[in-house]
Specification:
Strand order of the largest sheet: 2-1-3-4-5
Helix content: 40-55%
Low-confidence stretches: 1-18, 38-45, 145-152, 284-291
Strand content: 5-15%
Largest sheet: 5 strands, mixed
């Protein structure tokens, strides 16, 4: 028997059955637009405004699509999928706030064949999200999507090939300019500015070049990086990024109050730009060769001498480099000296913060030779008072052992509360009253499910009445909206009833992830990094032994405690009524 054709009509619409199925749901729709830096430089290229206009008009023309969000990545390559707005859209999708995503064409989704395919074939379907590429005529709910499956991979391959070709041309052009000693960076190093006549030529910024000389002179006299930064901050010298912000060279407001720090000094004092030489290719990436962004060794960089006016003498620069090298060799020697001493890991890495400045605390090991051998101690400290001064942040530190004991004791109290609450709730759920309530929820779920199926059935039959001329378009849309709304409300009610019924299960102990992790670490003897990061979002240290802990599942535990209390009152009330 010949297979019946299910090709779309010339207008690109779905067939009647698929259309009816699609219109049974009102989709919360996200509009997504993207434009790369290279595209924006091309006068013939599409614009963000044109993309948005086309996609918005498409959404407005479909009664089953309702735009609820808009995401725009302007000046971001399609070869990357860590685009800020794209990732925000994915987060909203995972949170269940989006049912449909509409873009102008498939290349707006991305120009990486494998990752684009993963989103279309795995991720979007997994979250039940409909995906539409308007000008490509692609709609994931269309049954032809499966039959014409070669078209989308082919378009993705073409998009990736285009991106690789652009990458090759751009990389070649950049490499040629670098070898000619031309500056190709976004912003000039502190102490320099781009020439108004030639953006690839650096000229000295006389307003701050004296600060650069002073920094190198201080380092040549033996001052540490943190001490230099602290001195500049105390004198009110504007930091490099704040200077660029005030000059309008960057518009990111986070730099408006930025200060000098030891990292800024460390980067400056090794930069040969200050002796008139150009070192470029410090960070490389070549998409067309499959080379990810990385920092190559010195031998892999491009170094050209005498490309612009120097700020420093070579003698001063070389003196500072010798001091840096001596310090480096001393650190290496100290590491070798204590190489056999066991090192401990920072189990609070990325989650331990200062209560005054908000910065992360550093983990420090101190080793020294004593009469009875090598003695090692560990502590956490805030480094910002060293660079920024006491008026910015107070000096504070705490021994590693004291921090681990305090956090461990707090976690044990937190987990004991969970275990006690879990036992109380499960005991209550085994009572006859709780079982009676659970049975009542089961009856309500069955009734609500039947009503939902009737609303969906009525909605489905509407299209046939409209197609047969029994309903005009106005009556059809009015009735459809009514049944769609009713179905949405019933679906919401069904979800809520099912969630409530679950809380009456004999072994219920809260949300699945929450209960699993709490039970996994219950009764722990030694605090580990995995445990700390699984159970804690943030630890704040204020000094003098005072800490505050933000637990990863704090809301879930509070909800469990409140549920146990309300369940106790509910069952007690039923027992009194008997």
């Amino acid at each position: 028997m010949a297979r019946k054709s299910r090709k779309p009509s010339a207008s690109g619409t779905l067939d009647a059955a698929a259309q009816a199925k699609a219109e049974m749901k009102l989709y919360r729709t996200a509009v997504y637009a993207r434009l790369s830096v290279e595209d924006s430089k091309n006068p013939d290229c599409d614009t963000i405004e044109n993309q948005l206009s086309l996609v918005r008009n498409y959404v407005e023309s479909k009664p089953y699509l309702r735009q609820t969000a808009e995401y725009i990545d302007n000046g971001v390559s399609g070869t990357r999928f860590d685009r800020p707005e794209f990732m925000r859209m994915v987060a909203d999708m995972r949170a269940g706030e989006i049912d449909c995503i509409v873009v102008k064409d498939l290349s707006r989704l991305g120009r990486n064949y494998l990752e684009a395919g993963d989103y279309l074939e795995k991720i979007f379907p997994f979250f039940g999200v409909r995906f539409i590429a308007v000008t490509d005529g692609y709609d994931s709910i269309n049954p032809n999507t499966a039959e014409d499956g070669l078209i989308v991979p082919l378009k993705n391959l073409i998009n990736e090939a285009y991106a690789k070709d652009m990458s090759k041309k751009i990389s070649t052009a950049i490499n040629i300019k670098q070898r000619q000693g031309k500056f190709i960076g976004c912003r000039a190093a502190y102490g320099y500015m781009k020439s108004p006549e030639d953006k690839n030529q650096l000229i000295v910024d006389r307003e701050v070049s004296g600060i650069v000389v002073r920094i190198f002179e201080c380092k040549a006299r033996g001052m540490g990086n943190a001490s230099i930064a602290k001195m500049l901050n105390e004198e009110g010298v504007v930091s490099p990024m704040r200077y660029k912000y005030e000059k309008g060279l960057t518009k990111n407001k986070r730099y408006a109050d930025s200060l000098w720090n030891d990292g800024t000094i460390a980067a400056m004092i090794v930069n040969p730009v200050y002796i008139g030489d150009m070192e470029q290719g410090i960070q490389k990436e070549a998409m067309y060769m499959g080379i990810q962004k990385h920092k190559p060794q010195k031998s892999g960089r491009i170094y050209v001498e005498g490309t612009h006016e120097p700020i420093l003498s070579r003698e001063l620069f070389d003196k500072v480099q010798n001091i840096i090298e001596e310090r480096k060799q001393k650190v290496i020697a100290d590491r070798k000296k204590y190489a056999n001493v066991q090192r401990k890991d920072n189990i609070f890495k990325h989650i331990l913060f200062c209560g005054d400045c908000g910065g992360r605390l550093n983990f420090r090991r101190k080793a020294r030779n004593g009469s009875d051998g090598v003695k090692v101690s560990y502590d956490y400290y805030c480094p910002n008072s060293d660079s920024y001064g006491e008026k910015f942040c107070k000096k504070k530190s705490i021994k590693m052992q004291d921090m681990e004991e305090a956090v461990g004791a707090a976690l044990r109290m937190h987990m004991n509360l969970f275990l006690d609450t879990k036992e109380v709730l499960q005991r209550l759920n085994r009572t006859a009253q709780a079982k009676q309530i659970k049975t009542d929820y089961k009856r309500q779920i069955t009734d609500t499910r039947n009503r939902l199926e009737r609303a969906q059935s009525m909605n489905s039959s509407l299209y046939n009445d409209y197609a047969d001329g029994l309903l005009n378009e106005r009556d059809y849309l009015f009735a459809k909206q009514k049944y769609v709304k009713e179905a949405e409300n019933l679906a919401q009610k069904l979800s809520e009833l099912a969630a409530m019924q679950t809380t009456y299960e004999t072994e219920y102990a809260g949300g699945q992830d929450f209960a699993k992790i709490m039970e996994q670490y219950a009764g722990f003897e030694e605090l580990t990094s995995d445990m700390a990061h699984a159970l804690i979002r943030r630890i704040v240290f204020f000094g003098e032994g005072r800490i505050e802990i933000e637990y990863a599942f704090d809301d879930e535990l509070k909800a469990l405690v409140e549920l146990a209390e309300s369940r106790k009152e509910e069952i007690a009330c039923m027992q009194r009524a008997v």
